[in-house]
Amino acid sequence: MTELYLSFLLMYHGALTMLLGLYGILPPYFGTSPLRANIVGLDLNSYPNPLVIAGFRLPFYLGFVSIGLITTSLIVNNIIGKREKRDQRGVAAIFTTDSE
Fold it and tell me: Along the 100 residues of the chain, how does pLDDT read in single tens digits?
């Protein structure tokens, strides 16, 4: 589920950046910069040259923590799986069945 969320987030970010790029507006990677456009907000007011602040806040760091937790669980499951299948090696492992 997390992988699906992160994939959607990357697609959304890519589409938003591409859409703004079509109009000649590139959002900043860091700092504060004005968007040189008139933006119509959800309240239907026009905002000339609004400031855009790019910064790393709590959701960004929580994303790193979640990726770290997922990676750790995959590594631990891989180590446990290798310990359980230690006796099955080589050609003999191909012909064994789990139903015994």
Answer: 677 777 888 888 788 878 877 877 777 767 788 878 788 888 999 999 888 777 767 777 787 788 888 889 989 988 887 776 666 555 555 666 655 5
Residue 94 zone, left/alpha/beta (φ > 0; ψ -120 to 50; rest):
alpha
Parse the chain into domains and list their residue ranges.
2-84
Structure tokens, 97: 């069945």
Task: Find the helix packing angle between 58-84 and 2-22, rounded to 10°.
Answer: 140
**Tokens found for residue 80:** 């446990």
